[in-house]
Design goal:
It is a single chain. By secondary structure, the chain is mainly α. The chain has one domain. The protein is built from 5 helices and no strands. Helix 2 runs antiparallel to helix 3 and helix 3 runs parallel beside helix 5. The radius of gyration is 17 Å and the shape is globular.
Length: about 140
């Protein structure tokens, strides 16, 4: 039962991440070109980190690197002064995507949000739980 619960939680995290990515995309499309160019490097870095994570999502060091990259991006975006309402909205959306990736990686949601807010501290990605090759007990 534990693998089913774990995969269901992962699917829930991916659903939240998908919604955040959609919001970021829509926000970026509504921005003017100069503002979009300002945020494009951060969005590109988000995409690169997610692509790296997608190659081996169950690997703890890969997830730790992705969480650390997301934290750095979120802090950088949070620390920059918004030029307009649109850049503020895109900054918030970028932080949401980064936080959702951190949570998918296994970081506690409160710890991820707190690390972004405080601008200090590090994240800890736990080891993935062992997976069983046999989802059901044998011996019937």
């Amino acid at each position: 039962m534990a693998p089913v619960v774990r995969e269901r939680e992962n699917a829930g995290h991916l659903d939240l991440l998908g919604g955040s990515c959609l919001m970021l995309t829509r926000t970026m499309l509504a921005m003017n070109a100069p503002d979009r160019r300002r945020l494009a490097p951060s969005v590109r870095e988000l995409a690169d980190a997610v692509a790296d994570l997608a190659k081996t999502p169950g690997n703890r060091p890969t997830r730790q690197r992705a969480a650390d990259r997301m934290l750095a991006i979120a802090r950088r975006v949070a620390g920059s002064a918004p030029q307009s309402q649109a850049t503020l909205a895109a900054s918030v959306a970028t932080q949401m995507v980064a936080t959702d990736v951190m949570v998918f990686c296994g970081v506690d949601p409160e710890q991820a949000a707190d690390a972004v807010r405080k601008g200090s501290g590090e994240l800890h990605v736990p080891d993935p739980p062992p997976t069983s090759r046999m989802p059901f007990r044998s011996g019937r």
